[in-house]
Amino acid sequence: MSSVFDDLAISHRFADLPPAFHTVVPPQPLANSRLLHVNKELAAQLGLDVSRLGEQEFLDVVSGQAPLPGGLTVSAVYSGHQFGVWAGQLGDGRAHLLGQIDTPNGPQELQLKGAGKTPYSRMGDGRAVLRSSVREYLASEAMAGLGIATSRALALVSSDTPVYRETVETGAIVTRVAPSFVRFGSFEHWANDASRVRELLDYVLREFYPELIVDGESEQERVCRFLQEVTHRSATMVADWQTVGFCHGVMNTDNMSILGLTIDYGPYGFMDRFRVNHVCNHSDNQGRYAWNAQPAVVHWNLYRLASALMVLDLDADLLKERLQTFEASFLKRFHANLQAKFGLRTWQEDDAQLVDDWWRLLHNSGADFTLSFRALAQAGKAPEAFVGLFEGAEDQAQAWWQAYSQRLTLDGSDTAEQREAMNRVNPLYVLRNHLAEQAIQAAAKDDASEIETLMLLLRDPYTERTGYEAYAMPPPEGSAELAVSCSS
């Protein structure tokens, strides 16, 4: 009988690196594993036969009961700074890399999260709870729907395995998908070993940045171009986060992708009521990873990456020059996003003040981040209703609306065509915490219907769908401040 995976080109190129970078370790399956949900759209992109995803062979692989045919199951070692403090050796404490699938859109690695202990689990059990697994499964697809660089999620497996956190919870496994799971911390781990940094850098460049390799160039030139590209991608990623109100929650260097992807969804959150210093992680007592701090934190993390690369005996000033391109890359993307979201044909220097006044209005009124942006397209038709969104700051809202209206007129942007364009960049649906909680509660009963509904909406979050009005509403009273911590 043919295999579900027969038509895939499977390899294990990360596992082919020297053993210092990883440990071969088999997953530890959960009890009575069940396929709760599978992402058929992503499966098709990987080259899987969607009609066969219900077969036992597929479940065996995504539940850790069998290896990926042609792959080699390993867990990676890395180190990192956590909440700004050097944490030493870390690693895939509950993740198993199954192998790599070569697709028309490039290589994609499959990784199980929650499949048991590894040599890097430290005091952990290597497990993931259903609650956090549902959140990661949905979040990565929500970000993909928003067009933000991210890892993806292929499958969600539930089980009868108890997992002990603050309470007894259900064990689950998420199959993550990304071109690579190499992190800033992967380089930091070898910051005192030039040969290992060089090996890892050569692998990353060869596999994911081949356009940066130039024959006959010096190592200094190659590393500088590499660092500038990682800086650019990371700046673009965090600019995209800022303009959809996304907070990552735990932006440690071991959670920063070397490819500029959003990875490691834990205590994340999409803002409901806007606060400029919003903190989504209940464990972040100092507000290090607040919404308004995220760009600076990414820049700080890039400096840590550059510090690790200095073991190659590079010119620190030249690396610093590349790091200093962060602000220009961030602002270029940030302003381009806002130009589209505000429906402006051009971006002018004075528009920065209009944006600052907008954030101030949202902060003072506590208005809903997503719905406030969405309302901009219809504000001209009903300015009184628009001003009414900003309870307690109506005078400020009126003044801002007048300035914005004048700007639209000056720009020639107040047209039906521009308003339609705004609705294609200002989402109506985002993965609010209370919606994720609804899906979690249903999943605990082996009911994936809420997951399926959210996947439908979040794949195309810009198109209004009849019958789903409740999913576009702010959270009901009492659920807006759901606490999400690192254990989530």
* Global outline: globular
Strand content: 5-15%
Estimate the helix proportion, in percent.
25-40%
Q: In this structure, how is the largest beta sheet organized?
A: 7 strands, antiparallel
Alpha plus pi helix count = 16
State the assembly state of the protein chains.
Answer: single chain
- The average pLDDT is 96
The strand count comes to 13
Low-confidence stretches: none
C-alpha termini separation: 41 Å
Provide a descriptive summary of the structure in words.
The chain has 16 helices and 13 strands. It is globular, with a radius of gyration of 23 Å. It has 488 residues and is of the alpha+beta class. Strands 1, 3, 7, 8, 9, 10 and 11 form a 7-stranded antiparallel sheet that branches. Strands 2-4 form a two-stranded antiparallel sheet. The two termini are 41 Å apart. The longest helix has 24 residues, at 219-242. The protein has helices spanning 40-46, 56-62, 130-145, 184-188, 194-208, 219-242, 294-309, 316-323, 326-342, 351-365, 369-375, 383-388, 394-411, 416-422, 433-443, 449-459; strands at 9-11, 22-24, 34-38, 74-76, 79-82, 85-89, 95-103, 106-113, 128-129, 152-164, 168-178, 246-247, 269-270.
